[in-house]
Amino acid sequence: MHYGYRTMKISLVFPPFYFQCLYNLPPLGLFNLTTILRESGHEAIILDLVFAIRLNTLAMGLLIYEDAAEMILRQDPDLVGFSVQCSTLSGSYPDCGATEESQAGHK
User: Fold this and answer.
1) Is the residue at 69 inside a domain?
2) In the chain, is it the N or the C terminus that has fewer CB atoms within a 10 Å radius of its CB?
3) pTM assigned to the model
4) Into how many domains does the chain fold?
């Protein structure tokens, strides 16, 4: 459906943190939001960066936030949303900042 607005390419991000005992479920809220956005005509994807750490596609280390920002920007989103919980809040700030700084050269 299209409601008279511009469709957007949206990246929904579960920010990187790694406490193995805390990551026992995927970001279910992002799955729900993605479904609603797609049904509304938007292109929406989920970037589960905690799962990326487990898959070794995102390396833990000093450059984790810069690498995460590059993963986000490779999707060329119009809008980026972050799922934040108390345990991930501190990791979201550098991720947002790195994404914003890197984005300046992309669009």
Assistant:
1) yes
2) N
3) 0.73
4) 1
